[in-house]
Specification:
Blueprint lengths: L7 H4 L4 E6 L5 E7 L9 E4 L3 H4 L2 H11 L2 E11 L2 E10 L4 E7 L1 H14 L15
Parallel strand pairs: 3-6
Antiparallel strand pairs: 1-2, 2-3, 4-5, 5-6
């Protein structure tokens, strides 16, 4: 029997609320929602330290849901203003599962971090340091 998102067995355990905690016990990030069979019911990554945790939270959730697994394909895509990871995963029994994770908060945090670190060139300056 398959434990995939369409099965009764899998559906009973796929509503997840997982929290990754730091050394002091504070929440770094969390994953909630499910069952992850489509973007409409994707697992959602959120939290104040997503840049430190990033997609490791997805793999932690996979281990919790499937036990042993092997990712066969992964795709990141945008749909209706949100960003998703779609993972195709084989479980230990060889059943294929397709799961969706909403990583919008992670992508926004990464973009904000990049924006904060970009060096703004003075007006008229080139990257080589000469004015043109």
């Amino acid at each position: 029997m398959s434990r995939g998102p369409g099965s009764t067995e899998f559906a009973s355990v796929t509503r997840l609320d997982l929290v990754m905690r730091g050394m002091g016990g504070h929440a770094l990030a969390w994953l909630s929602g499910g069952p992850g069979a489509s973007v409409a019911c994707a697992f959602v990554l959120a939290g104040p330290s997503l840049l430190r945790v990033n997609v490791r939270l997805e793999y932690w959730a996979l281990r919790r849901l499937l036990g042993e697994y092997h990712v066969t394909a992964q795709e990141t895509f945008d749909e209706e203003g949100r960003t998703y990871d779609r993972l195709e995963v084989l479980d230990a029994a060889g059943a294929l599962h397709t799961l969706y994770f909403d990583i919008t908060a992670l992508v926004r945090a990464e973009r904000a971090a990049i924006d904060r670190t970009l060096v703004r060139l003075p007006h008229g300056a080139s990257r080589s340091g000469t004015r043109g």
